[in-house]
Write a structure and sequence with these properties.
Blueprint: H1 4-17, E1 21-23, H2 24-29, H3 34-42, E2 46-50, E3 53-56, H4 63-73, E4 79-80, H5 82-89, E5 99-103, E6 113-117, E7 126-129, E8 132-135, H6 137-145, H7 150-162, H8 168-177, H9 184-192, H10 196-215, E9 222-227, E10 230-235, E11 241-245, H11 248-251, H12 254-267, E12 272-276, H13 278-283, H14 285-296
Parallel strand pairs: 5-6, 11-12
Antiparallel strand pairs: 1-3, 2-3, 4-5, 7-8, 9-10, 10-11
Helix pairs in contact: 5-6, 6-7, 7-9
Length: 298
């Protein structure tokens, strides 16, 4: 058994690496006894978040601490997954009350956690982000494909591609390894629509539009934000104007066409959706500026 002073040191060191939380199974591996853990829980030095998982020092933890606690509650082989992994990777701006994890071994129910007990979770599809065990970006998208609406899967995939986290090799391996899996058809369709060159062109267009606004003293907009559940190219918070930057490479696919029309229908009568092309910016900049200013001031 480890002495009292050393126990506190071990707990503090472990918590410092894990967003302020520790698990009983981890402490047992460090030769800390159950009795030593129970004493600290009774005295208020450990605060139970899940069965066998504790916050150290105080009960308040960050969002990352909540993620870490859920993963630790799932056992040594558990990882953050699905919606929660998408949130931590920054692929979707979602904050669901239930934290999703995946683990190869079935455990008891965990309050506040949505567990996915899976048998096909190879090590190469797991990694760490902020030192939290998590599914890789590609595996996260595959998991999302089985549970998320298509528009959210597209949004997450676009964000992953924009960040440079998708490789052709990883996508190909995922498609081959998970043939017949639930969600694989949606995953295949979404990644097939990706065009890295088109994405770079769209990014250049976005930067050019921001420069255009600055040059003409138009308030700086928000890029790739979310308005009422829809990802939009450009918007000004509090204003009734959304700008969609139209290029054929990005908006010319059937999927993008349908998404665009669905979004336009949603905002009809509520705000102005202005579609801007590179030609409009170069051929009639004064007219475009006048239109933007008029809508922004109404």
């Amino acid at each position: 058994m480890v002495n009292v002073k050393r126990v506190d040191e071990l707990i503090a060191l472990l918590a410092a690496k894990q967003h302020g939380v520790v698990a009983l199974w981890q402490l047992l591996r460090l030769q800390v006894s159950r009795r030593q853990v129970e004493r600290r829980a009774v005295s208020g030095r450990l605060h139970q978040l899940h069965r066998g998982v504790y916050a150290v020092g105080h009960a308040g933890v960050s969002r990352e601490g909540e993620f870490m606690a859920a993963v630790l509650a799932g056992g040594p082989d558990a990882v953050l997954s699905h919606w929660s992994a998408a949130e931590l990777w920054g692929l979707l701006k979602t904050r669901r009350s239930l934290i999703a994890i995946s683990a190869p071994t079935h455990h008891r129910a965990i309050p506040g956690v949505k567990p996915h007990w899976v048998s096909d979770l190879p090590k190469r599809e797991c990694t760490r982000r902020d030192n939290i065990p998590i599914t890789t970006v590609t595996r996260t998208l595959l998991d999302l494909a089985a549970v998320a609406p298509l528009k959210q899967l597209q949004r997450a995939t676009n964000e992953a591609e924009r960040a440079g986290w998708l490789s052709e090799r990883a996508i190909k391996e995922t498609l081959e390894r998970h043939r017949g899996r639930n969600g694989i058809k949606a995953f295949r369709a979404v990644v097939a629509s990706l065009d890295p060159q088109a994405r770079r062109s769209r990014s250049d267009f976005e930067l050019a539009f921001v420069a255009f606004c600055r040059h003409h003293r138009i308030p700086t907009p928000v890029l790739n934000g979310e308005v009422e559940g829809f990802e939009v190219d450009i918007h000004w918070p509090g204003a009734r104007l959304i700008v969609e930057l139209d290029t054929w490479d990005y908006h010319g696919t059937s999927g993008a066409f349908e998404t665009d029309r669905e979004r336009d229908a949603h905002f009809a009568g509520r705000c102005v959706v202005l579609r801007v092309t590179p030609r409009m910016m170069s051929r009639d900049p004064e007219g475009l500026v006048a239109t933007i200013r008029r809508v922004l001031t109404t």
